[in-house]
């Protein structure tokens, strides 16, 4: 199991996740159509060419989902009770097909669960960067994690 239990985290812990992902046209097309998002900026190369970006922009909700996904192995894999919420999701720069993304995580808050004595609440700050080290997505993820077994 790769994830950490609640008791193994401290505020300020940082992780530069090893897994990186180069975004493909297929990733963007499948995610956009599966989520029923008809935005031509994500699907229509001719339309996108006429925008300020000059090309297709990757669906932001794909970028957000990838942000969380790239972090799971080192944070909550096997120790998660539930993700409780996502806050302050921002996308300061667009993602384009062919961009390679990586994620860094910092623990910003910890507290014991009031309802579950065997669990705790961790708030992770995830930051996604492209190959130019530009921030393309950032968010806070609040997760309930199992306590370390005795």
From TrEMBL:
Pfam families, sorted: MaoC_dehydratas
Signal peptide: none
UniProt source species: Rhizobium phaseoli
Superkingdom field: Bacteria
Keywords for this protein: Plasmid
Domain named MaoC-like: residues: 11-114
Protein name: MaoC family dehydratase
The UniProt record lists the keyword Methyltransferase: no
Keyword Hydrolase: no
């Amino acid at each position: 199991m790769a994830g950490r239990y609640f008791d193994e985290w401290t505020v300020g812990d940082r992780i530069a996740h090893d897994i990186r992902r180069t975004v493909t046209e297929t990733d963007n097309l499948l995610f956009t159509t599966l989520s029923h998002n008809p935005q031509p900026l994500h699907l229509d190369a001719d339309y996108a060419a006429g925008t300020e970006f000059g090309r297709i922009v990757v669906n932001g909700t794909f970028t957000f989902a990838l942000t969380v996904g790239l972090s799971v192995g080192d944070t909550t894999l096997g120790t998660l009770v539930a993700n409780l919420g996502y806050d302050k999701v921002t996308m300061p720069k667009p993602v384009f097909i062919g961009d390679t993304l990586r994620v860094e995580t910092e623990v910003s808050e910890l507290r014991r669960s009031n309802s579950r004595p065997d669990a705790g609440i961790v708030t992770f700050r995830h930051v996604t960067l492209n190959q130019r080290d530009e921030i393309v997505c950032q968010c806070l993820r609040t997760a309930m994690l199992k306590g370390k077994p005795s």
